[in-house]
Amino acid sequence: MKKPKGSIWFDGKFVDYDKANVHVLTHSLQYGSGIFEGIRSFRANGGSALFRLDDHVKRFFNSAKICGMKLRVSRAGLSKAIMDTVRKNGLDDCYVRPFSFYNDSNIGLDVTGKKVSTIVAAVGMGPYFRGKSSGLRCKVSSWERISPSVLPTEAKASGNYVNSLLASMEAKRSGFDEAILPSEGGFVTEGAAENIFIVEDGNLVTPSKEANILMGITRDTVIKIAKTIGIGVEEREVHREELYTCDEAFFTGTAAGVVPIINIDSKKVGSGKAGGITESLMDEYDKTVHGNSANPIFRDWLTYL
Does residue 32 sit in the same domain as residue 89? Predict the structure, then answer.
């Protein structure tokens, strides 16, 4: 991928991409104390539109509240910054990253009195799993998904993703494309940066909130789409062995979209190809984010620029 250019919104002002810098001892770099979001903008009806902007901004502020971070920007201000950043960079199909962090270079955990900065970056993005359009090969990780007694799993906090990073690195070193993390009790939780669904007897099954998953916005999108086209959805505990016996499996995520899983732990999932329900949901998701959904309710998810 080419090095991005353009401008980054940084505490209310636009700065050149290469000049959006902080000190190497910045608190959030040292201790993982930042919070962030991932938002997609898509080409839609001859223009561009941010997908579920309000929901992403709401989750961003929830993450700040959970982590006790006092932001210096309002919800309306952040929404405007996101829209302005996409416009400023002349992008339509892109990925947007709001990020808030303790912008202080004094060593020490205490955040009392430390400045909180917020940036918004927008970069062009192709397929998250490049070259894997036919489907992913996944590995159940030896690393367990963090629990709320360890870190706040409902916050999209930087430090949480060390857990994901270790699992993903392990999977890729073993020749797989992505990891699936188990819970402490051995149940399925999510991928390294994605929610997971399986298909059993024509219905979707996905780990529930009680599995300590991040409540993904793309996950919620797929659940709502599935229900409108007559596909049943069950949110519950998912046993590891169900990954091996299910008819289909797929990941969802803001960056990933909807991506088939065709192999888990070297065991073929279903026919070893993307299944019919997965393909239907991929198609409906694609129509929805590009403003072509037949359901008028889903058109309200788009914020046109």
Answer: yes
